[in-house]
Amino acid sequence: ANEYKINSIYNLGCGRKKLDFCINCDFDRRHCPDMVFNLEETWPIDSNSVQILLSDNVFEHVKDLVFIMSEAYRVLKKDGILLFRVPYFRSFTAYMDPTHVRFFTLLTLKYFIDGNYHSNNYSFNNKLFFKGDSWLESSVPFLSNFSSRYPSVLDQTPGLSLLRPSSAIYLLQK
Q1: Taking a C-beta distance cutoff of 8 angstroms, is the pair 70, 121 a contact?
Q2: Model pTM?
Q3: Cβ(57)–Cβ(87) under 8 Å?
Q4: DSSP symbol at 146
Q5: Cβ density class 65-74: b for 16+ within 10 Å, e for less
Q6: In whole angstroms, what is the distance from residue 44 CA to residue 156 CA?
């Protein structure tokens, strides 16, 4: 299966969700990843060598998100993309797992965006994209567009809790 992998796409913290087209990375050898390493230690990946980093429900488990983002920035090529999903902080799933150590809001990743107070350390460009996915969106396509364009309205408007996303999908570009 390795002949089908794209060398510049990495699936971070793959666990049992390995992707055939990625280099799958995890700290747990039992999942038989392509690369074994702890995301919270220096990654054994060359600087400026990765086009896409993917992660699905992993970053809410890491203690040092600042380090993770620094490593992601280091290994991504110019215009490289970090795309990841985490439980949204208003979702009950964010709180039901005792191994979650952090929660993500609309503004959590602004810390890492160019033009922010801390941007001299990270400087992801200002193409932060947030997409929520609620159970209702799959039934009513209009809601998906609305929640992506106006996510703060969902957070601030009483009565719209059914539309609040269960997960947040973030895309950052170097």
Answers
A1: yes
A2: 0.81
A3: yes
A4: H
A5: beebbebbbb
A6: 42
